[in-house]
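INTERNAL AUDIT FORM
Audit reference: QA-55
Scope: verify that the stored structure record matches its stored sequence.
Auditor: D.O.
Record contents follow.
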Amino acid sequence: MRLPVDELVRKYKDNLFRAAFSICRNTEDAEDVVQDTYIQYMDSSRQFESEEHIKAWLLRTAINKSKNTVRSFWRRNRVDIGEYLEEIPFPEPEDRQLVEAVMSLPQPYRIVIHLYYQEDYPVKDIARILNIPAGTVKSRLARGRKILKAILRED
């Protein structure tokens, strides 16, 4: 099964952007990752089982591309996320606090927290997307929540 790219862009661009942004912590890099993900889909001749399989593949590809972006020499020597967060209007002060807390998590926890709470994936699907055991996903979620709790208590 293959779907037209314009349909996938319309449906999943925000999901892919949020996943990429949670890793890259930078709007421009996240947008580049999303674009590169769709380009890879167009170049691929892979057939998918279902639309959910396509979405999972797109997310996994975006996550991998985001990790590669973060590891690059040029990216490691750039400005932090703080500048971007200053530009975003938050309806409630607690919203900004929560986003800052999540973005301060180490990457493995940040990714599973994002997929679980933002994308509403169950643990089993997150494990498949990240290619890790379900137990690892559960422990990362638990540790991520524990760290978030500690960060939010400090504030």
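Auditor finding: record pair retrieved intact. The chain has a mean pLDDT of 89.
Action required: none
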